[in-house]
Design a protein that fits this description.
The complex is a heterodimer of chains A (137) and B (185). Chain A has 137 residues and is mainly alpha-helical. Chain A is built from 6 helices and no strands. Chain B is built from 10 helices and no strands. In chain B, helix 9 (147-156) packs antiparallel against helix 10 (160-184). The longest helix of chain B has 25 residues, at 160-184. Chain B is globular and about 50 Å long. Chain B starts with a helix and ends with a helix. The interface between A and B is large, with 115 and 129 residues.
Amino acid sequence: MKNSKFLIIGILFGIILSKSEVVSWYRIYEMFKFQSFHMYGIIGSAVMISMVLMQLFKRGVIKDFQGNQITIKEKKKGFIRTFVGGSIFGLGWALVGACPGPLFVLIGHGFIAIIIVLIAAILGTFIYGVLSKKLPN
Amino acid sequence: MEVITQPWPWYVAGPAIAIILFLLNFFGKNFGVSTNLETFCTIGGAGRFVDYFKTDWKAKTWSLVFVVGIVIGGFISSEYLMASQQIDLNPKTVQELAELGFANAGSEYLPSEIFSVENFLSIKGIGILVAAGLCIGFGTRYASGCTSGHAITGLSSLQLPSLIATIGFFAGGLLMTWLLIPLIF
């Protein structure tokens, strides 16, 4: 199956998030309390290295496996949608200590409560879909 | 084996996440997890009610496979790769959490005060989980990205919307941690 490589990349990502404790509620709490460098170090170094990668993609130094230019999709613009949407997400992130990636990791760890969070997140997505045309950008 | 079972420091994890981003881009995809929440809605038939979900989810199959991998990665880690669930927290954090009613902070990955089965069978307990889930689902789609899509992919490709979204993530997170969590617990 041609998608099997993404399974392996997903497994690696799940292991990285587990082993670095990014999936721990406590690490997220500690981050928002500014009492540890751990999470800032992870996000900061990931962004720094990715920035170099992005430049290499943009200049065509690194191409994809078929030799094509690698492009990054442009994010939707709009101050309200990104700031308000981001803040609402931030409330949920800090409350359960997990963003979408870690939610899936924690299901793998066997935390049943996280399945409730995931179902609610799917419901939240549905609510956004219903309201999407009426919300300000 | 010691190196594998010990928790990984930030300077291993951060570059490793950048490698994940590289691999996905190398195989022609962009890094982001929260899009899958939309795909689940589409597969569940949400397109019959709302046009927003009328999309061709088959084009996103790779991302569903990626997410299945993430779950398996979590399972492998918890079964085979962790010596203990102990988290080496700042003692100050442990003390503050004790004052809020979180006993033994850092002795497990997640606090039983939120995630134990007995706890989510209570109205308050399930209310917390559902409220947080709704915020995560609604917020990430309104902002069109989560930590992977905005804070990592978007910031590193110097996109302004991602900077605004990341500031929003922190605005919401700080509000929750500093003001609301002490009121809730």
